[in-house]
Amino acid sequence: MDKLKHLFTRLEVPAKTTLLQEGQISKTMFFIEKGCLRTWVNNDGKEITTQFFFENDRVASIESFRTNQPSLYSIESLEPCILQTISQQDFQNALENLPEIKEELEGHLFRRLLQAQKLFYSYLKNNPQKRYEELLEEHPHIIQRIPQHYIASYLGITSVSLSRIRNRR
């Protein structure tokens, strides 16, 4: 990524800033220097959190970013953030001219696919208690940094149910 440093723009945003709205076409990729972002979908007015991202993570609606189709989800800051941004055009040029960037993107996409599959199968196989225990074991920083109502949404339960699960521990 050092080869691309000159293409990045620094962006500071406060908490609760929408960086991409569901249905818009993604024209920017974000690299988190400091802070936390989440992705979420709107289900009849109810926000459902789908992922959390922290320092050193890359975030974009990659499907939209690469295909110019409307994004399936929104991207929002949960904390004040310092981000490095790169435009779709600059990133596309880098992919064409730097094969190592393409390899890194493939690795990133593969990791995101595995993470999404793991969450999907956890929804199918596990009850909310087990999903919470997996989250606590594999991603304790989420429990420490993210407000409870977003964690509940991510786990597919209500905040009240999450409180009950936490109290049982």
From TrEMBL:
PROSITE patterns: CNMP_BINDING_3 (PS50042)
One Pfam short name: cNMP_binding
Transmembrane intervals: none
Top-level taxonomic group: Bacteria
Domain Cyclic nucleotide-binding: 1-112
Coiled coil: none
Annotated protein name in UniProt: CRP-like cAMP-binding protein
Species: Albibacterium bauzanense
Organism taxonomic ancestry: Bacteria, Pseudomonadati, Bacteroidota, Sphingobacteriia, Sphingobacteriales
